Amino acid sequence: MSAFLLNWVLTASALTAAVLLLRAAFGRRIGARLRYALWAVVLARLLVPGQFFTAPVEAPRVLPELSVVQALPRGPQTPAEKIDPAQGDAAGQAVQALPAPAGEEAAAPAARRPLNPRALLGGIWLAGSAAMAAAFLLSNLSFARRLRRLRVPLAAECPLPVYTLAGLPSPCLFGVLRPVVYVTPETAANPGMLRHVLAHEATHFRQGDHIWSLLRCAALAVHWWNPLVWLAAVLSRRDAELACDEGTLKRLGDGERRAYGSTLLALVTAKPRPGDLLRCATTMTGDKRSLRERVRRIARAPKRWLWAAVLSAALALLVCACSFAKSETLETPEDGPLTAEELERFNTEVFNGDGFNMMNQFLFLAVEAPKDYQQIDLFQLFYNGTGAPMEVTEEERQAVAEADYGGEDPMVDLVKCPASEMDAVLQKYLGLTLDETDRWCLDRFTYLEEYDAYYDFHGDTNYPGEVTFTSGKWKDGKVLLYYEGSGFPGFSSGNGEMNMVSSGPACVTLEPQKDGGCRFLSNWGWNDDPPVIPTAYPAWEPEWVIPLDGVEPYRAPELQVERRGGTAETLYTTRFEPYEDRDDGFYIEICRSGDGDLYAAVAVSATERDCFLTVPGKDSAGWTAEGSVEPFTNLFGQSGLRISYYGQLTEHSFGQINDYYTFSGDGTPSLLLRALGNVTEADLDGDGVREVAASDGWNVSRLFFLRDGTLFEADLDALIHDAWPEAGYLESGFWDPDGRYLSMSVEVPLPGYDITVTGYRTLFFDGESLRIYKDESGYTDHIANSLKTPPAEVLRQAALFVDTQFQTLAAEGYGVDGSGRYDEENFGPGNAVWDDWRLTDLTGPSYEEFGDLRIEIWNLSYETHTTTPDRIVLAGGSYLGEDGWCMIGYPGCDYLCFHLDENGKRTFLFSQMENDCFPGSELFREDLARALENEGLLSPDEG
Asked: Whole-prediction pTM value?
């Protein structure tokens, strides 16, 4: 059950309860027709689920729908146990199965997935509603057939047709499109009684009670499980009779009160039955309590209070307005850790991304409380601009040069910050205007009044760059994100100097906004342990579980420390203080010797160094300190430096080597571990302790983890091949720090064919074992269920692109003829059969700008399905996957390009394939410019 439906149920129930209370409090002091009318607002809410406007007062709050991530139980499992993988189509849609060879058994059915409780409740609700609707329909059809079969026409003065029917419990009005009055033979034989009955039923008709009866039945069908709705149905039916009595007497006159009451007493003899609520008929049955009230009101009109009527109507309308209204209060999850999906969103969508992100820029400054943002250093905040495209004219450059640079243009970038854009940034991210701040350090800019903008010449940047949030939590509706900055956040001195607030982790606090954005509340050092975020494993069973019980403890290579003297080119220097409570330490330097070798050392004196790492010059010629020397804290209980350099990984490969060094109080270095390839430091198993995972993106993948105080190293390639002997060549990607998994491709045999195909898997670490998953997320209408929701027009264009590629493949059918020979004579059209396609991924957007021309770029991946996998010829980056799914082309190299106008309207331009570059690279920009020129959208001088 979604939050939308839950909100509907609660607001409808609240409105029903409110009308019940009003009825109980003022029922005898207001007219019967007004009392009956109060139920109209309840009926409207029961049948209309939406919310359409802002509430005059706060509406009932409902927790938002949160994604349910089902984590598998942790702990050791049987060694290298294969857990019944699904043999059928992994796409979750109808695809022709591969023909099974003779003698082979049919494929096993797909693995059963765990039930989603929300989906289960929704299914029960729908099933019950369908059953109730069927019961209403059958009851009314049966009643209608009986009436038509036994009725006898009666001539009477009535605006509706009148019939008599023997055995009828009481007179009634029945029928929606053609309402008819039915009376008993006894009533027809008594002219006075007949006149009263016909007046009563005619009043029912004028009130529209035959329509209200149908709508009441519909509300009961939808809300069959809600006892408040059943109570409301009973009482509204009772109030309908009271309102009808009141309206009838108004037409008959007060002189008919006694006679009308006698008619009512004579006719209302049958007790109401539960089945009466299932019929769209206005019968005159009633229980003793309702009959007593009807007679009392008929005998003597009750005294009505105008103020009670006005108050009842006003309160009913107010509660109704609240139930149909959208709450202005932003609904946030309960206090607790962020989910892996939420953390990934903050890491990839809210912060970071391609190019400059103003959210990241706010992290540069340390702010302890929301009020302190009024004193923020605006020069440091807007040092790189406002995030909007900067258009600076030559006249502006000259005016700034004359104002503050003696008329000389420094020939570096000129940053321009229009006051209106600064104001917009501050309002969006802080809820402040420029005038509401102290304008601190704004005078360090050059202000040009004629442009109402602030300027500064400089060629450097203080941009924090990409930031990785390692954990986060919800607290009192706010988001707390934890990270380790490199040189930030810091206090501003006001003259350009920055002082770090903390050498440990920092925490930024955000307040989510209704428009999907966030406002900053603080950005401060954090001394407490950040919250632990459980790992979100896939919802289905792993294909393989490989215990790590047999993994040996890790032994780091021994260090050879050599004291060197003389001079050397110092490339990097940092002071290391091993004790937080003592102000002593030493310097660690990265130097290049005269012969070109690179070495890391502890500075002993001005001329002597204890060298603990040497990298040959041929491997370190292009080495730079930026990004290659990083401090680490509290990693396996240690702190120190990570030094990254290029070297030989295996006998046949070279790549990045990462050494983690720790230092004793006197500066003696120790090697904690050496990781080969790209490294990821993340809490992979969700226990609050980070692991180190390394992969070269090819065939070297290692995992370092702590168990009972001992450091272990797992060779993932070797462990997988030992447990899965059928697996052939294994290629690993890079670890995803947000999803906490490693993507892999593995060569596997295709059952029934003498060929191997490419299988794709994801690997997780649960603290005790490796879990290997095959994708079972499934597809809906050709689209991967795991796909993040892109704009509808982008998804539509992506589907059209893939369908076009599929239609071309299917029409041509190029492949070999199945003879087993792969040469030109056996290759041609009409040999391969393609029967389906699916969109596997759609990521973006990225942007490129050419003057006023703004291009939005989306990257897509897709597969097509064949029933003849042995006839497919692969070339380039093509692959043949399991279950007949293939990619004929270059995976992940297709791009959709859209034009964005000044209002953000998106227009599709064209698609292009790029297999050796990507958005943001110069080559991609050049190819895109040529394509735009060919479309007549860009002139050669603009590209």
From this structure: 0.58
